[in-house]
TrEMBL record:
Biological process per Gene Ontology, one example term: phosphoenolpyruvate-dependent sugar phosphotransferase system
This protein's name: PTS sugar transporter
Domain PTS EIIB type-1: residue ranges: 5-80
Organism whose genome encodes this protein: Xylanimonas allomyrinae
An annotated GO cellular component: plasma membrane
PROSITE patterns in the record: PTS_EIIB_TYPE_1 (PS51098)
Active site (catalytic residues): C27 (phosphocysteine intermediate)
Keywords per UniProt: Kinase, Phosphotransferase system, Sugar transport, Transferase, Transport
Annotated TM spans: none
One example GO MF annotation: kinase activity
PANTHER family: CYTOCHROME C-TYPE SYNTHESIS PROTEIN AND PTS TRANSMEMBRANE COMPONENT (PTHR30009), PTS SYSTEM N-ACETYLGLUCOSAMINE-SPECIFIC EIICBA COMPONENT (PTHR30009:SF4)
Length: 80
Protein backbone atom coordinates (compact mmCIF):
# COMPACT_ATOMS: atom_id res chain seq x y z
CA UNK A 1 0.00 0.00 0.00
CA UNK A 2 1.15 3.54 -0.71
CA UNK A 3 1.46 6.06 2.10
CA UNK A 4 -1.65 7.81 0.76
CA UNK A 5 -3.61 4.55 0.83
CA UNK A 6 -2.42 3.90 4.38
CA UNK A 7 -3.49 7.40 5.42
CA UNK A 8 -6.87 6.89 3.75
CA UNK A 9 -7.33 3.58 5.61
CA UNK A 10 -6.44 5.26 8.92
CA UNK A 11 -8.88 8.13 8.28
CA UNK A 12 -11.65 5.73 7.27
CA UNK A 13 -11.13 3.64 10.39
CA UNK A 14 -11.08 6.80 12.55
CA UNK A 15 -14.46 7.95 11.24
CA UNK A 16 -16.04 4.65 12.10
CA UNK A 17 -15.40 2.59 8.99
CA UNK A 18 -17.16 2.29 5.69
CA UNK A 19 -20.51 1.37 7.28
CA UNK A 20 -20.57 4.63 9.24
CA UNK A 21 -19.92 6.89 6.24
CA UNK A 22 -22.89 8.44 4.47
CA UNK A 23 -20.94 10.87 2.28
CA UNK A 24 -17.40 12.17 1.89
CA UNK A 25 -16.68 15.43 0.09
CA UNK A 26 -13.34 17.25 -0.31
CA UNK A 27 -13.51 21.03 0.05
CA UNK A 28 -10.37 23.17 -0.44
CA UNK A 29 -8.22 21.82 2.43
CA UNK A 30 -10.88 19.94 4.35
CA UNK A 31 -12.55 16.60 4.07
CA UNK A 32 -16.21 16.78 4.98
CA UNK A 33 -17.69 13.52 6.17
CA UNK A 34 -21.33 12.92 6.98
CA UNK A 35 -21.54 9.91 9.31
CA UNK A 36 -24.39 7.81 10.68
CA UNK A 37 -23.05 7.66 14.22
CA UNK A 38 -20.80 10.53 15.32
CA UNK A 39 -19.91 8.64 18.52
CA UNK A 40 -17.76 6.29 16.39
CA UNK A 41 -15.51 9.16 15.25
CA UNK A 42 -12.10 9.10 16.97
CA UNK A 43 -10.62 12.62 16.80
CA UNK A 44 -7.31 11.52 18.32
CA UNK A 45 -6.94 8.80 15.68
CA UNK A 46 -7.67 11.38 12.96
CA UNK A 47 -4.91 13.61 14.30
CA UNK A 48 -2.57 10.59 14.50
CA UNK A 49 -3.41 9.91 10.83
CA UNK A 50 -2.17 13.38 9.92
CA UNK A 51 -5.21 15.64 10.29
CA UNK A 52 -4.28 19.19 11.25
CA UNK A 53 -7.61 19.63 13.01
CA UNK A 54 -11.07 18.14 13.43
CA UNK A 55 -14.40 19.92 13.84
CA UNK A 56 -17.60 18.07 14.66
CA UNK A 57 -21.14 19.38 14.39
CA UNK A 58 -23.76 16.70 14.86
CA UNK A 59 -23.23 14.10 12.14
CA UNK A 60 -20.89 16.33 10.11
CA UNK A 61 -17.16 15.92 10.67
CA UNK A 62 -14.73 18.33 9.00
CA UNK A 63 -11.17 17.05 8.88
CA UNK A 64 -8.44 19.56 8.04
CA UNK A 65 -6.06 17.69 5.72
CA UNK A 66 -4.32 20.34 3.64
CA UNK A 67 -3.71 20.62 -0.10
CA UNK A 68 -3.65 16.83 -0.59
CA UNK A 69 -7.34 16.52 0.33
CA UNK A 70 -8.48 15.73 -3.23
CA UNK A 71 -5.99 12.87 -3.52
CA UNK A 72 -6.99 11.55 -0.10
CA UNK A 73 -10.68 11.71 -1.04
CA UNK A 74 -9.95 9.66 -4.17
CA UNK A 75 -8.05 7.10 -2.09
CA UNK A 76 -10.98 6.92 0.35
CA UNK A 77 -13.41 6.34 -2.51
CA UNK A 78 -11.23 3.43 -3.66
CA UNK A 79 -11.57 1.87 -0.19
CA UNK A 80 -15.33 2.26 -0.17
Amino acid sequence: MTSLALKARAVLDAIGGVNNVVEIDPCTTRLRALVDNPDLVDCNALRAAGAHGVMRTGRLVQIVIGPEVDNLASALEDLM
